[in-house]
UniProtKB/TrEMBL annotation:
GO MF, one example: DNA-binding transcription factor activity
Organism the protein comes from: Paraburkholderia ultramafica
Keyword Transcription regulation: yes
UniProt xrefs under Pfam families: HTH_18
Domain HTH araC/xylS-type: from-to ranges: 220-318
Gene name as annotated: rhaS_2
PANTHER family: HTH-TYPE TRANSCRIPTIONAL ACTIVATOR RHAS-RELATED (PTHR46796)
Protein's name according to its UniProt entry: HTH-type transcriptional activator RhaS
């Protein structure tokens, strides 16, 4: 099969490549995909990233795609495949299974593949804005370098990245997962990529040069702000600014001081305030959901049941 694929379409591929742009946007990239879209974060209010997953055809003779300026990682969510890629006029191949990762360089690429498993073949595509990589690199003091040494990696293994992609994939399909949770994940993923795959000089990440005794005061400032702003659309960047810390360091310091991630802390406070309003007011579930910062009644109901074991209406009736 590999020899057949290698022989088929080489000249055809060069002709097609001449007709597609060298670079395209992450939103436009979807039009070049061959599979049936399963999940997309495009309509979610997420910052700095787009995630999509596809049910892929069991065999694809030739697929041509332009390059992307955004950092793009892919992995298999199910199945296994023999994947071949033509980059800069050279074909290479790899047998990929669930958990394997591959990097998509910012250049036009020819793809072809065939399934080597009885399981359905599905892929997860994660696009991260280059501006976020640059910002996290500055905060980590990487000597100003945000170049990654993933290079032309056709296949690599990193269980932490695979787990983060899995978590983001689940979040994209679950309306109950909040943006603050996704914000935390993508910042952590950017930091991990820079720490382990940066071409630049690796400077150890460290807190800004400030007395350690000031940190609890800064975190208290943030928790006070959260208490007063539960209805607001909170983000890691905004909370970090209130602490006077970089967003890269903020999540780690916050967890050390409070025992919770920012997402866990905000969600707990929102649910506690919602429970109080359910007991003490006659506001509707939707009014309460919006008052404590949930984007919809359904999102609120799912989160409330996770935290309290009851739907909001059942909680109110019981109380």
């Amino acid at each position: 099969m590999a020899e057949f694929l290698l022989a088929y379409g080489t000249s055809l591929g060069m002709d097609v490549m001449a007709r597609i742009p060298k670079l395209t946007t992450t939103l436009a990239y979807d039009r070049y995909m061959a599979g049936q879209k399963l999940v997309s974060s495009v309509d979610r209010p997420w910052r700095h990233l787009v995630l999509r997953s596809y049910l892929e055809p069991a065999a694809q003779e030739l697929l041509e795609a332009p390059g992307l300026q955004d950092l793009t990682l892919m992995t298999l969510a199910s199945g296994a495949e023999h994947l071949e890629r033509n980059l800069h006029g050279r074909w290479e191949s790899a047998d990929l299974r669930v958990g394997d990762l591959w990097f998509v360089p910012p250049a036009p690429i020819s793809w072809r593949w065939c399934s080597i498993s009885d399981e359905p073949l599905s892929t997860v595509h994660l696009h991260i804005e280059r501006s976020l990589i640059d910002s996290v690199a500055d905060q980590m003091e990487h000597g100003g370098s945000s170049e990654l040494s993933l290079g032309d990696a056709m296949q690599f293994h990193d269980p932490l990245i695979a787990a983060m992609l899995g978590a983001l994939h689940r979040a994209a399909g679950d309306p109950a997962d909040a943006r603050l949770y996704v914000d935390t994940l993508v910042h952590a993923l950017a930091a991990h990529l820079l720490q382990h795959y940066s071409r630049g000089r690796h400077a150890p990440g460290r807190l800004p040069a400030q007395p350690e005794r000031l940190v609890p005061r800064r975190i208290r400032r943030v928790t006070d702000y959260i208490h007063a702003s539960l209805a607001a659309d909170l983000s890691i960047d905004e909370l970090a600014r209130h602490a006077g810390l970089s967003s890269f360091h903020f999540a780690r310091v916050f967890r050390r001081e409070t025992g919770e991630t920012p997402h866990q802390f905000v969600t707990r406070l929102r649910l506690e305030e919602a429970a109080r309003l359910l007991r003490a007011s006659d506001q509707t579930v939707l009014q309460i959901a919006l008052a404590v910062g949930f984007e919809s009644a359904s999102h609120f109901s799912v989160q409330f049941k996770r935290g309290y074991g009851l739907t909001p209406l059942a909680y109110r009736l019981r109380g």
